[in-house]
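Key result, reporting period 2: structure in, sequence out.
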């Protein structure tokens, strides 16, 4: 996607400097900063501190981290150490482990002298694959939006609601939940997107920044406004991303997604999830019981970053001194509340049969 007319991916490899470049998302939407990721500690910090965020982008970043590790020491022991070091940074998003497993499986049979170059090629491949997966998700989601638009009065926008940021900066490009929005907008379909703020880190502001940059009409709303909008017929479709989806279609996404699904179910609003296949965890059946939920630093709740009146970027405390916090980063939406899963291979029911029907090869490989 473009920023001020210039195309960017969320990360890219600087071949001359032999360093990974990232958009440091901690400063968005108020400041656009590009950072270098050089050392293994830099890679771990980038993932844990949410300089990069979103399951697909975390996976791609981890792949480049494995390439860095192989450049430093291509031995088996260092490969395993790098896998462990990076895997523990964010426990919920399955793409992280998926990318690390894929890298280790591809590199293990190679001679150590071949591993550094092979690891870098594989990281490039994973990044490019993500772009194409998200483009195809958008193409399938576009057809759902087109069908909704066909039933509305001429000129009336399709009103979408999204939670968190499943946009191009949460992936390598296009985004998951936003890809259908961009493609519908580019196809001339009138849209209006309700963008949840998504406390505590307000990732909805990133979605608003993205949509505004692309010219998509949108409004930034509080997390608790969605149910009200649905009750009054002001939402035609909810679409979110996912950080991990079970083989039977339970969806783990940013905290608050479950409440949106409940409100959508109660009001007859379709609730779709944009699902890249690397986000399917075929080893897990019951998302509520089996998916580990990351508990993050309470300062994310007690403090908030924004632009100050003087124009600078600062952080302020919003809670009384001494107040405790709880900060689960994700929740699980049971499959019964999901209308459909929009994948790169098409749209399916949020069921084990639905996923296996689109991905028989992956289902078989998982046993």
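The corresponding designed sequence is given below.
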């Amino acid at each position: 996607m473009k920023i001020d007319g210039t195309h960017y991916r969320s990360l890219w490899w600087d071949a001359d400097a032999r360093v990974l470049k990232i958009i440091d998302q901690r400063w968005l939407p108020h400041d656009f900063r590009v950072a270098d990721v050089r050392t293994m500690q830099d890679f771990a910090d980038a993932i844990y501190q949410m300089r990069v965020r979103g399951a697909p982008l975390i996976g791609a970043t981890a792949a480049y981290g494995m390439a860095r590790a192989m450049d430093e020491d291509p031995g088996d022991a260092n490969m395993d150490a790098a896998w462990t070091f990076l895997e523990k940074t964010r426990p919920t998003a399955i793409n992280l482990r998926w990318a690390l497993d894929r890298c280790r499986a591809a590199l293990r049979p190679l001679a150590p002298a071949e591993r550094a170059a092979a690891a870098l090629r594989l990281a490039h491949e994973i990044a490019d694959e993500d772009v194409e997966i998200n483009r195809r998700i958008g193409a399938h989601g576009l057809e759902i939006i087109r069908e909704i638009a066909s039933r509305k009065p001429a000129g009336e926008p399709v009103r979408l609601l999204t939670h968190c940021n499943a946009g191009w900066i949460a992936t390598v490009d296009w985004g998951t939940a936003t890809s259908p929005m961009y493609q519908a907008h580019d196809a001339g379909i009138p849209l209006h997107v309700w963008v949840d703020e998504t406390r505590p880190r307000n990732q909805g502001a990133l979605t608003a920044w993205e949509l505004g940059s692309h010219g998509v009409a949108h409004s930034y709303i509080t997390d608790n406004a969605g149910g009200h909008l649905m009750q009054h017929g002001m939402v035609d479709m909810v679409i979110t991303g996912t950080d991990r989806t079970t083989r039977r279609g339970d969806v783990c996404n940013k905290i608050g997604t479950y409440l949106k699904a409940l409100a959508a179910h109660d009001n007859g609003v379709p609730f779709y999830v944009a699902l890249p296949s690397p986000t399917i965890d075929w080893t897990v059946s019951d998302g509520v019981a089996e998916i580990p939920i990351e508990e993050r630093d309470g300062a994310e709740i007690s403090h908030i970053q924004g632009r100050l009146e003087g124009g600078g970027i600062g952080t302020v405390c919003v809670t009384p001194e001494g107040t405790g916090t709880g900060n689960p980063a994700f929740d699980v939406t049971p499959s019964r509340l999901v209308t459909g899963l929009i994948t790169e291979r098409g749209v399916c029911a949020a069921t084990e049969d639905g996923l296996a029907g689109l991905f028989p090869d992956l289902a078989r490989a998982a046993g």
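Residues 138-365 form a domain with the Rossmann fold fold (CATH 3.40.50.10470). The mean pLDDT is 96. This case is discussed further under Risks and Mitigation.
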